[in-house]
Amino acid sequence: MFEPPIDFQIPSDKDAIASTPAGDGQHILVSANCYAANERVAGDGALLEETSAFRSDVELFYNLHTLLWDPEHQQTLDVREDAVDADVDWTDDRVPEIVLQNEFEFVDGTGATLEQRVVESVDRCSMTISNRATFDKPGERTLYTIVNLGINGHDHEDPNAVHEAQVRCTREHDVVVADDDHRFLAIMQDRDGRRRFDGYRIGNTGQRYGRERSAWADIYQENDGWITNSTAGGGDLDSGFGLYAPEAETVEWTTAIGFATDAESAIDHAREALDAGYEADREAFADAWESWHEGVTTSPTGDQYVDRLYERSLTALRAARDSEAEAMVAGAFKPENMTYKFVWPRDQVIMIQALLAAGAESEARDAVNWLDRVQITGDVVDERGIERHGTWWQNYYTDGTPHWRALQLDQVGGPIYAHWLCWQETGDDSLVDEHYEMSRRAAEFLLGWDNGWGFPEAHQDPWEEIWGYSTEGVASAIAGLRCMAELADSRGETDFAEQCRERASVWASNMETYCFKTDTPYGDHFVTADNPEYRPHPAPDERPDAAAFMAYWPWNVVDADAPAMRSTAELADEDFWAADEVACVGRYPGDVYTPSGTAEDGGWPLCEAYADVVRWQNGLDSDAVEDHVHDHVKRWTTSADLLPERVDGDGNVSWNSNLQWTQATYILLVESLRRGEPYGMAPGE
Fold first, then answer.
1. Which of 384, 393, 517, 684 sits at a 20 to 30 Å CA gap from 13?
2. Which residues pair with 118 in a beta bridge?
3. Domains (ranges, CATH) in the chain?
């Protein structure tokens, strides 16, 4: 009999992520979720979820559950299903050691607390979890661990890969080993030097009965305090094992997970993590992060709260960097039926802008290198019949394989801008030559993408919903051509530079003709896109759009105090567009990209960032950016003080608690305020 499992694959939000900035631990991306912090989902617990190694977009386990068995009360309490309260945080703004705390209550009213601390090793590809369970009164207990092995089930992976797991028992230790024929993980536990499992099971996820039943069914659903041992399995698997603690009031143990491309190395990494001990790995982890932060901007304002959020945002950006791609995934977040664990060229551009503002030049240069590596340089025609030479695909798997493939102009003009900005900020003229062909190819595509009437051809809007003449996409194309002109001038290619400037000037002169509408149901404003391919309600050519504010910053195409931009900004405070109870504007009125799939009250912090820069610069609200970074943001953060993609009308995090684009805009606002002007403006006309 099969029943849909309740122990994995639900839409997930994330409150904290972690990796290392140096060493083999850079291969690992760990994320943690606090269900207690999200009113939209069931459960009040916190647990590790969707941990990956070697590729940030491929999980090696979906989640790690810790369960408490109390024979006196005949109860098995799980962190997510049964905790009565929970919290997830980092121990420090600059050191993302994840701390999870879960509170439990048994039927007799007595309680228990489970605290778990998590770090990745710098010296090896492993992660270590320090566990401490404290009970109100001593008693016989068994502590269980269940790992849902996400090592199976990725449709972009090799369909012929082997997905299997086994328990190996040696003289020295017991260990769970799992693999997909490419990546291996090994899990061990240690309590006072004893590295054994008190019962273990490899099961088939979702199988409730029979010899192949899941570890979840055997431990949690059967609720009898026993595991029926099972040593191996293949397919969609979970693994569970126990730790018996007689007459315990406090139980402390360590769980280590090693990763490798072969089984023996994965086992070695897990064993070495236990040999080193949690505190030793934690010290090396902290030293690596402190060393990295010493090379970038820290505490830029002197305001304790702002500097704290700034450093956390910068730490999150670095933690989201895939060590092989040398670029950042958009977010460790999985709404229903999709994931943000891809690399978007546009998101890289904004992250490069933020990294440069914060002095993280090495990571910014690496991200520009990634843009160069994945640019389309062959004769490729997409499904619309567009010759894509010189452009980028919409987003990529971390191995550089294309995923979504629509044409977005901010993912053509944006990379030229990123190249130009990196050159400007570092002062390194070698960067011009290093990526000149990349930018020239992109500029040549843009020059050929004119509609014959002085404007770019249609393309997909930045929200990836509408095909038409998008305000933000066109502005980014203009900015890209202007950046290319300066790059070309530096190489002595003055004719090409002039060609880029002239085309940018013509397009800019027609911005309002195409993208500014009057007498719409909302007023006079820039729209999402003119001449949309389809017209949902509200229509993309009749609704104001927060991406239009990027036409001022960073694209520098429409002045902040231009009447068209000013009238758009004046609408951003209206109830039909902004959150009711907090200062946060949404993408556009009637947006249905929400957790419910219907239009909801709420806003996007990154949209508010772009709107606030316009308000700041055009005099509508000269304190807009200062209020944003010092005050408004306090209503939007997660339990770990990271910034989300979206908030509800009251400011509570709605989903995606670590969107890196949002982290980047916070850094950029702080740096802009510190400089007294918007940071990273593209060249003007």
1. 393
2. 98, 129
3. 16-293 (2.70.98.10), 304-675 (1.50.10.10)
